[in-house]
Write a structure and sequence with these properties.
48 residues; mainly alpha; 1 helix; 0% strand
Length: 48
């Protein structure tokens, strides 16, 4: 197996691992059950 194929396989494995880890983290954060509430805008100063 030449070097370019090996680099491509290693890069693919790293990419898939990062994608799966990201999906797991998103699912764990979603299972917390908290509703996503936007930040209050009434306290922000107006810059105009």
């Amino acid at each position: 197996m030449n070097r370019s194929k090996l680099v491509a396989i290693i890069t693919g494995v790293i990419s898939i691992t990062l994608a799966i880890a990201y999906l797991i983290i998103v699912q764990l954060l979603d299972f917390r059950g908290r509703e996503m509430i936007p930040a209050p805008t009434s306290i922000l100063p107006f810059l105009w």
